[in-house]
Write a structure and sequence with these properties.
The chain has helices at 14-34, 193-201, 209-213, 219-232, 240-247, and strands spanning 41-48, 53-59, 69-73, 81-84, 88-93, 97-107, 124-136, 140-146, 149-155, 162-163, 167-170, 181-183, 188-191, 238-239, 251-268, 277-278, 282-294, 302-306, 309-319, 330-351, 354-375, 381-387, 394-403, 407-417, 428-442. By secondary structure, it is mainly β.
Length: 444
């Protein structure tokens, strides 16, 4: 094992790890190719420009940006067809999602600091858009999103729909009206005309000027004030966002026991020259608790994960042709345990009652125990136990299968991380790798 130059850190099972990585990427590629239709067609309807309603199946991708077209089928067996905004005045899914066509004046001012204009007033352009209905009541609230452009509209089905005006702009004025003041140092101001619009049109005995003076241009704030207005007039209200939230699972908690297969390789240029200590790979049990936060768009396909997990590794390493200082033999022991905290992103591919998922995570490691010691051929100490105060992070990649949104099976591989240190932390180089088979059960 002694070479003439620096040696890379390799383990006996490097080929096995590489094979697992290739398998993960192969499965990922297959899933990506064959799962482009993972978003299901759901029961919905559309109304054409002649006011004729058609009940059908619509491909629901839970649009993040407002669509201008959609796919539909008249039955499961039919081929899908496409309809555009030119021929449809409304479409939706039951009472949890609805889009209506409207001819509106829209100001597409961008709130990006680098793209602000010097104009305080909105610059309107007439467009035909599908607006998403948020609140349907005495006066309706609508939303339009296109990339970084996010605007709200209001009106009734029998009246013109107007944009609620909110605009951040550059200013060179020395004096800025208090209500428009945002940041005098950066010379930015904001036009909050939407507050005056609502004060003018949402009449209710319970409202006063203070009701609107601090109102934010946010979906939550606007929906709240529109709901209160309908309640004030005893008007029947449909809150599409609430219906949508009730339909989705926005948070999942799962227990995640696992079988880990771990390996470790260690190198120290001073103590063991160019030799590499390869510890015997070990199989051990681990246990995790996964919190999954479903992102509220794109048909629940994306989620953020946090998964605190206990793991441990206890093994021995042996070099039989070590340098003469050890008289041909160096024995080492490692006793390492920690709480890993992967934080990552998951993507789902749906198939009726089952789904395939892929996730990638950054793993933060909180060491519980990390003792490393070595001895020579006669048992004499070569170096006393070294205890590392902290370990480095690494990455994890996995692919899995979930059934009935309840039971799951995942194969996961972690890249190598440094776990050994102490007084000679700068001289020790280690690579700790783990591959896992993970079972999961979501209890809510």
């Amino acid at each position: 094992m002694i070479g003439g130059g620096p040696s890379p850190i390799l383990t006996k099972d490097d080929k096995l790890h590489k094979m697992k990585i290739k398998l993960l990427f192969l499965l990922t590629t297959i899933v990506s190719i064959h799962c482009h239709s993972q978003i299901s067609f759901e029961k919905g309807y559309f109304i054409d420009d002649n006011n004729y309603q058609t009940d059908c199946l619509i491909k629901n991708i839970d649009w993040k940006n407002n669509p201008s077209e959609f796919e539909y089928k008249l039955s499961e067996e039919d081929e899908s067809k496409k309809l555009t905004i030119e021929s449809v005045k409304e479409f939706g899914f039951g009472d949890f999602s609805k889009y209506v066509k409207a001819i509106v004046n829209i100001d597409r001012s961008d709130d990006n600091i680098n793209k602000l204009s010097n104009e305080k007033n909105p610059v309107f352009k007439e467009e035909v858009l599908f607006l998403k209905v948020l609140i349907e009541g005495k006066i309706n609230l609508y939303q339009y999103i296109d990339g970084s452009v996010k605007k709200f509209f209001y009106g009734t089905e029998d009246s013109n729909i107007e944009q609620l005006i909110y605009k951040i702009y550059n200013t060179k004025e020395k004096k800025i009206p208090e209500d428009n003041k945002l940041d005098t140092k950066s010379k930015l101001a904001v036009n909050n005309a939407f507050r005056q619009q609502l004060w003018r049109d949402l009449k209710c005995p319970k409202f006063n000027i203070n009701t609107f003076s601090k109102l934010g241009y946010f979906k939550k704030d606007l929906m709240k004030i529109f709901a209160k207005y309908s309640e004030c007039h005893n008007d029947e209200l449909i809150d599409f966002e609430q219906k949508h939230r009730q339909k989705q699972d926005v948070f999942k908690l799962a227990i995640r026991p696992r079988l880990n297969y771990s390996s470790l390789s260690v190198k120290n240029a001073i103590i063991i020259s160019n030799d590499i200590i390869e510890f015997e790979p070990k199989t051990s049990l681990g246990f995790g608790l996964e919190a999954e936060f479903i992102l509220p768009y794109n048909k629940n396909k994306w989620a953020i994960l946090i998964e605190p997990t206990f793991q441990n590794f206890k093994s021995e390493g042996l070099i039989t042709d070590a340098s003469s200082i050890f008289r041909g033999e160096l024995r080492t022991k490692i006793d390492y345990s920690s709480i890993e905290v992967p934080i990552g992103l998951r993507h789902y591919f749906f198939f009726n009652d089952s789904r395939i998922f892929m996730n990638a995570s950054v793993v933060f490691d909180m060491k519980l125990k990390s003792d490393f010691e070595g001895s020579g051929y006669n048992g004499s100490d070569v170096f006393t136990p070294i205890k590392r105060k902290a370990t480095t992070g690494n990455f994890a990649f996995g692919i899995g299968y979930k059934l009935f949104n309840k039971y799951s099976l995942e194969i996961r591989h972690q890249t190598g991380r440094q776990i050994i240190g102490g007084n000679e932390i700068s001289k020790w180089i280690s690579s700790y790798k783990t591959s896992s088979i993970i079972l999961g059960y979501s209890f809510f």
